[in-house]
Automatic annotation (TrEMBL):
The keyword Acyltransferase applies. It comes from the Bacteria. It comes from Nocardioides mangrovi. SUPFAM superfamilies: Acyl-CoA N-acyltransferases (Nat). This is Aminoacyltransferase. The lineage of its organism: Bacteria, Bacillati, Actinomycetota, Actinomycetes, Propionibacteriales. InterPro entries: Acyl_CoA_acyltransferase (IPR016181), FEMABX (IPR003447), PG_Glycine_Bridge_Synth (IPR050644). Belongs to the FemABX family. Keywords: Acyltransferase, Cell shape, Cell wall biogenesis/degradation, Peptidoglycan synthesis, Transferase. It holds the Pfam family FemAB.
Amino acid sequence: MPSSPEITVREISADEHLAFVRGRSSASFLQTPAWGRVKSEWGRESLGWYAGSALVGAGLVLYRQLPRVRRYLAYLPEGPLLDWEVEDLDRWLAPMAAHLRKKGAFGVRMGPPVVTRRWSAATVKEGIAADDVHRLGDLPPTERTHEGARVTAQLLELGWRPQAVEGGFAAGQPQYVFQIPLAGRTEDEVLAGMNQLWRRNIKKAVKEGVEVTTGDDLEAFHELYVHTAQRDHFTPRPLPYFRTMVEALGAEDPDRIRLYFARHEGTLVASTIAIRVGAHAWYSYGASSTEKREVRGSNAIQWQMIRDAMAAGADVYDLRGITDTLASDDPHLGLIQFKVGTGGQAVEYVGEWDLPLNRPLYKAFDVYMRRRG
């Protein structure tokens, strides 16, 4: 029986990286070459995994430098793009670690795009109503994946360390998200899966004459986004960040990123940014006015984004991060309830994992980030 070819890892061009992404049904937008341009304050590199001469995996690596020394944390957000169902992960991860060590990395952080558990909207709703349920983990999942359990077990055996999902850089990308499955469903079926409040609000927006359009008025989006940040007490990203994001992702693929605007009698009441890579569509950023909330612009704009995702062939509409808390006194509960109303499902990924390559430097970095956080 012939042995499997050795897996090697080396730098590839952005064009090779993008071609690999386009050959997959979907990939995280954080693993596209363009995302490296968005995160301009980081170093970046496209990596390729080879079995012989065949490119079988790819990843975007972002390099974050330690203060005052030329050593880096190598970070692969929601990646790399590998066949995570393989039995021997070390065969794929060891050459990556060796390559990154040569590049000056003292540690590696990655977020395998591997699902561990799912909970239906009905299950989450029951959990919110129950006094003795405080977190998603207190609820029996609708689905528990074998792949998630296998990847988690292998990473622990190989010396990788699971990261906390709260606070500072350790929070990284969300471990829990809310998604609406779209594959094989009609618009009517997706709408019927939403709760009564969502359906009523979508109807009300239509009745009130809310108009949803797409366009390129980034300044209008950002002005409303800053207003939202002030109202909801979070720190907004500056306009140049979004300009770079739109330009970089749009240059890579004209259908990658789109701005939406919901207006009522000429007044902007909601605005969002949607991203799509292959069959995966995301609601990335959103803003809404404090005035005219009764016309339900946020529901109208989400419904149009979902419909457009379906028309583009998306299998999943991703509303991005949620916390795992279901406690009635948690300030994030309202956001979860808004997303649960779409009738989708809460999804847990394996989360982010670290591999220390230089333990003293890794420990120093960990202490530095904890103090910052």
